[in-house]
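Sharing a chain and its predicted structure for anyone who wants a worked example. Both blocks are below, sequence first, tokens second.
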Amino acid sequence: MKQLEAQKSRKRALLAVLPFLFLGLADVYFLLEWGLNPLWGVMILPPILFISALAWIAFKSGFV
């Protein structure tokens, strides 16, 4: 029973974080498409992934 609840909370966390992760990745994509230095994409991507991972953990554990 607990395993089913854990899977459900992981899925809900993924669904909550996915739009923000998509927006961040789209931002990196548009920066690169506009012709900015690819270094900007490399610099912006880690914070986007880090914050998305923190949000996923917060949603999964029920902190939010």
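Comments welcome. The helical segments are 2-33, 38-61.
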